[in-house]
Design a protein that fits this description.
With 709 residues, this protein is α/β, with parallel strands linked by helices. Helix content is 28%, strand content 20%. A 6-stranded mixed β-sheet has the order 1-2-3-4-6-9. Strands 10-15-14-13-11-12 form a 6-stranded mixed β-sheet, with helices on one face. A 4-stranded mixed β-sheet has the order 8-7-5-16, with no helix packed on it. Helix 4 crosses helix 13. The protein is globular and about 80 Å long. It starts with a helix and ends in a 5-residue tail after the last strand. The structure holds beta-D-glucopyranose. Beta-D-glucopyranose binds next to loops.
Length: 709
């Protein structure tokens, strides 16, 4: 059980973080920017504006104000631009915003069209509230299951994360809003995040941790947020190799680089090669500090111009110069956005186990409902946490009919034990909430002692115990799995949590989520945990605070990524052990057959792949078809197989549909350390099509021949 002092400490951290986001009045400015610029032939407004600003004005644009605002320059008509967080919703505004499921549940939908709809809805809510910069999506991989922020990201796989991020960015930027892909890079831990140094080799960096960022930028993301940690000994916010070498150099990104909140650690480093914008306010990029650096010749004014240029050109590309700050035609919390939130919540629920068809529940059954999360709508904590304008309904308040609600310690009370024994099914909604699972610290691997006791007692007197586990990632389920009939995994599902759970539990819709991470039988099974601090679950305010924000006081701890590519299913499939629930797994109330795989070679080393999926069950249900590619004769060590395509299909009972995928040379690529680039080696590869990473239904070996340069 969490020690009381740790609990209080975490509460305090949450209170401090929530202070920052006490709901603000929404921006009411419905007029556009009227930039006051002298006539010129220069087509770029950003460039003209930059030329017009004084040095002092430019320096004022290097840091934020009021926690989330980028100041304007009234003299030239540049208005302040507001930013906002968004993991679940636009948080911190006095407005009934739509609270969407957390990103890891978006990933579990495996439905990119739906995620674009979420982005579109959030973009439109941004416009309604006058927000120009959205601080999302987060794409750090779930390297360790206990990372406090896994719920804010898209799981353990770079391809899935990249596709999700791209879909989200596309939706958001259909509006004049800047999307910010974060946290660049290797912020895969919340263990003293200001004081960790992610030590990684080049190949792992390239193959696992960077692709999702790259994909989000290819989809047009106009901003990037740096992270708190160091990477190979240098802070990410002033990292020459990551920022200049890769981001600006190789990827040719010329948008805005924003610091994470209080994540700059020096003036000179950042001016030479770091973030463009210091948030939430000036500490290292104040007028005094920047002028001093200019006088010392650390950089000259062109460095300031570059940074401000990135900011202004991102505004221009997004369309912020051309439209009113607030678009009164857009709405927050409208029924359309709620419908999208409900759809994601439903599709993000993963049915891990369903012994003897324990689910769906029958309407006329007597049921008992218990578990802390049945009586509240749980969220993750930290900067994603939403302060509800109106508390949403919990599952307990939504379920009608013959139902007993179990108090926390029901198992000590005879009358409740009798009711549990005589009911048709017991539903326990358990997991974490914002105190236990949050940024700024990691979370436990196990459910708490009281929850485990409740499950044990329930299973000892009832044969149909249905467990709903809410967490941002894998939790210890090895013991539970044998005890209970059914297990559903969800993360924090937002305003439609109760409706979505009810719909899935009662079979109004079939579950169709797939795990975006692997659940191992034991924490020690994850290779990435072997070098991880053993006291990850302990918490002390003192430890968190020492040296936070003060680079000269803190001791930085190395996080060794010695597992290299062996993260999640890449590890479990290549070298074991078998996971309890594998990546891509998720059951349905229906069943599906896969057949007639045909692979044809196209031009330039591409393959044209097609097959059919048929709903062979009795209910309409979606299925996610997945393609894993396995190199059969790799030239260097490679993971056994990797996800390269997926598609969600909606199939009526008995319906069959075809899936067609083009697979190009990129799908075979691996990082070549010698030539310092991605290469696709010629050789034999298996195309493995299935319903999860371990439920492969169709397989064909192809010979890939490298293209002649
Ligand atoms: C988080 C960021 C967030 C920022 C602003 C930081 O603590 O790491 O993800 O965007 O706060 O709320």
């Amino acid at each position: 059980m969490m020690r009381f002092s740790a609990y209080l400490g975490k509460r305090l951290v949450q209170m401090r973080m929530q202070q920052m986001l006490r709901n603000r009045d929404v921006v009411k400015d419905e007029s556009p920017m009227h930039l006051k610029l002298p006539p010129s032939d220069e087509p770029s407004l950003a460039k003209r504006l930059l030329a017009e600003l004084t040095l002092q004005e430019k320096i004022s644009l290097l840091s934020g104000v009021n926690e989330f605002c980028i100041p304007g320059v009234e003299r030239v008509g540049l208005k302040p631009v507001w930013s906002s967080d968004a993991t679940l919703a636009l948080r911190g505004w006095k407005a009934p915003v739509t609270v969407f499921p957390a990103s890891v549940s978006m990933a579990a939908t495996f439905n990119t069209d739906l995620v674009t709809l979420v982005g579109d809805a959030i973009g439109s809510e941004c416009r309604s509230l006058g927000i120009g910069i959205l601080l999302a999506p987060g794409v750090n991989l779930a390297r360790v299951p206990i990372c406090g922020r896994n719920f804010e990201y898209f799981g353990e796989d770079p391809y899935l994360s990249g596709e999700m991020a791209a879909a989200y960015v596309t939706g958001v930027q259909q509006h004049p809003v800047i999307a910010t892909v974060k946290h660049f890079a290797l912020n895969n831990s919340e263990y003293d995040r200001h004081k960790t140094n992610s030590m990684i080799d080049e190949r792992t960096l390239r193959e696992l941790y960077l692709p999702a960022f790259k994909r989000a930028l290819e989809a047009g993301s106009l901003a990037v947020m740096t992270s708190y940690n160091q990477v190979n000994g240098t802070y990410a916010s002033e990292h020459p190799y990551l920022l200049e070498g890769i981001l600006r150099g190789e990827w040719q990104f010329n948008g805005l680089v924003i610091s994470d909140w209080n994540s700059l650690y020096s003036t000179d480093g950042v001016l030479k090669c770091g973030a463009d914008l210091e948030m939430p306010g000036g500490k290292y990029l104040t007028k005094e500090a920047v002028m001093d650096a200019l006088e010392r010749g650390v950089v000259d004014e062109t460095a300031i111009d570059q940074k401000v240029g990135h900011l202004l050109s991102s505004y221009e590309k997004a369309g912020l110069f051309a439209c009113p700050m607030v678009d009164a035609t857009q709405e927050v919390g409208c029924s359309e956005h709620h419908a999208t939130a409900l759809q994601v919540a439903r599709e993000g629920i993963v049915l891990l186990q369903n012994k003897d068809q324990a689910l769906p529940l029958k309407e006329h059954w007597n049921i008992c409902i218990g578990g802390d999360n049945a009586f509240r709508v749980a969220q993750g904590g930290g900067s994603s946490m939403v302060q509800w304008e109106q508390s949403p309904q919990s599952l307990a308040s939504l379920v009608e009919g013959s139902c007993t609600f179990l108090p926390r310690y029901w198992y000590y009370l005879r009358s409740y034990r009798k009711r549990v024994a005589s009911s048709d099914a017991v539903i326990l909604v358990v997991g974490f909430n914002h105190i236990e699972e949050s940024e700024a610290y990691d979370r436990p691997w196990q459910l708490d002692h009281h929850t485990l006791a409740s499950i044990k007692h329930a299973t000892s007197c009832n044969e149909r115990v249905i467990l709903v586990v809410q967490s941002g990632g894998a939790v210890d389920m090895a013991q539970l799995q044998g005890q209970v009939s059914a297990i559903l995994w969800t993360s924090y599902l937002g305003c439609e949590t109760a409706q979505a759970l009810k719909d899935v539990l009662y079979g109004v819709v079939s579950p169709s989520g797939k795990l975006p991470f692997s659940i191992a039988s034991s924490l020690a099974d994850y290779r990435s945990m072997r070098t991880y601090p053993k006291d990850y679950a302990s918490f002390s305010l003192a430890r968190i605070h020492v040296g936070q924000g003060k680079a000269n006081v803190r001791t930085v701890r190395a996080m060794q990524y010695t597992e290299n590519l062996m993260v999640g299913y890449r590890q479990f499939d290549s070298e074991g052990p078998n996971p309890l629930f594998c990546f891509g797994h998720g059951l349905s109330y229906s069943s599906f057959s896969y057949h007639d795989l045909s692979v044809k070679e196209g031009e330039n080393g591409a393959f044209h792949l097609s097959f059919f999926v048929k709903n062979t069950g009795l209910v309409d249900a979606p299925e996610v078809a997945q393609l894993y590619i396995a190199p059969l004769d790799p030239q260097i060590y490679r993971p056994k197989q990797e996800l390269k395509r997926f598609e969600k299909l909606f199939l009526k009972a008995g319906e069959q549909r075809s899936v067609v995928w083009e697979v190009d040379e990129q799908a075979f690529a691996r990082w070549d350390q010698e030539h310092w680039k991605f290469v696709s080696d010629s050789g034999n590869y298996a195309f493995r099509v299935g319903s999860s990473s371990r439920d492969i239904r169709l397989e064909q070996v192809v010979v890939y021949a490298k293209r002649k340069p």
